[in-house]
């Protein structure tokens, strides 16, 4: 691997990609008993998407039905709140976001390399997005109760984060994220704080 020039975060909404998804994940443990009966985590073994891998779709959907809460689906208003939260995180920490797509069940964020730990960056992004959803009164799990009586997080634990080790890879990742909503049948997304691929300096 060469010098790291950026990160590509894939932040899953609650229930989007389960830790024991038969296609693989980066999870090491299944924390919910109701899910554990559907299998143990299988390491994906790659930073590339495994969404197209052949798998037992019925088993995956059965596991989703066993979740404590219904899987999160962000509508358009909620997606805008999520993006505003990401923008607040970027402003707070000086993240240079090159591409962003907020989809109904997950979000893609491509950003230039930052010296902070990528896991801490992912937590920061998700925390600010959650705060913005709550502040605007559009939290998708409003009215539900999680552990300790708290409002559940609309996000899955952790993140998937391929490290980007070349400028060609960086530019491909930006293009992929920019085109992702269109491929999903949604309008192209433009966010004020997103700076694009930009220069290589």
- What proportion of the residues is helical, as a percent range? 25-40%
Count of alpha/pi helices = 5
What form results from the Cα inertia axes?
A: globular
The overall pLDDT, averaged over residues, is: 84
Determine the N-to-C terminus distance: 19 Å
Structure classification: alpha+beta
* Cα Rg: 17 Å
Main sheet: which strands, in order across? 2-3-1-4
Describe this structure in words.
The protein contains five helices and four strands, in the order βαααββαβα. The protein has helices at residues 33-36, 57-65, 76-93, 118-135, 167-183; strands at residues 6-12, 97-102, 106-112, 163-164. It has 201 residues and is α+β, with helices and mostly antiparallel strands. The longest helix has 18 residues, at 76-93. The two termini are 19 Å apart. α3 (76-93) crosses α4. The model has no long low-confidence stretch (mean pLDDT 84). β2 (97-102) and β3 form a beta hairpin.
